[in-house]
Design brief:
The chain has six helices and seven strands; from the N terminus they run βαααββββββααα. With 189 residues, it is of the alpha+beta class. Helix 2 packs antiparallel against helix 3 and helix 4 packs across helix 6.
């Protein structure tokens, strides 16, 4: 923070794909989370797949086995996609001459929240910040329909994290503060 208390910042290294984990929480707050989608798929496969397979095959046992094997195949496929996404993204960036780790600086100014990631800068005026919440490893600032992800490890000690979040909360609208119970808990309100 400068002498006048006008700006705060947090800086660190952001790895490519790191924000994906935090994005799962965003989806959960905006509607159906990835876990809920997986549960819906599995239940649908069971509820629809077993009776249809039993009707076609004439055997409930064969139907249950075929659907269970399909579920196992789906789980293996999902794991393969998750396992390969990070390396594929890093390769794609390397082919384009981009680093897989970049310096991220989060700035709180009186007028706006600034997300400065090496060659990309995004600015959100405080009235556009609609929610602030904590995931196990990140703070997520929802800005209308977008998100700005701040890794919690950027704060070497809990007091600095609390101070930064308190400053952000002081600049958010009352409605946004009310939608940010995680941040309210951290700042002790």
């Amino acid at each position: 923070m400068d002498e006048g208390g006008h700006m705060m910042e947090a800086t660190g290294i952001l790895a490519v794909g790191e924000s994906s984990t935090a994005m799962a929480y965003i989806k959960a707050r905006r509607g159906v989370s990835p876990r809920q989608m997986k549960a819906i798929l599995l239940i649908s496969m069971l509820v629809v797949g077993i009776p249809l397979s039993a009707w076609v095959s004439g055997s409930w046992l064969a139907a249950m086995l075929s659907v269970e094997f399909a579920i196992v195949g789906l789980a293996v496929g999902l794991l393969a996609v998750q396992w390969s996404t990070g390396p594929a993204m890093r390769r794609a960036l390397a082919e384009r001459g981009r680093a897989s780790e970049q310096t991220l600086t989060f700035r709180l100014t009186p007028e706006a929240l600034i997300y400065d990631l090496t060659d990309l800068t995004m600015t959100a005026r405080w009235p556009c910040v609609t929610d602030l919440y904590r995931t196990p490893k990140h703070w997520v600032f929802l800005v209308q329909s977008s998100a700005m992800i701040l890794p919690r490890r950027f704060f070497p000690e809990p007091g600095l994290e609390r101070e930064f979040i308190a400053e952000a909360m002081s600049r958010m609208t009352e409605a946004a503060r009310a939608r940010s119970p995680d941040a309210l808990k951290v700042v002790g309100r």
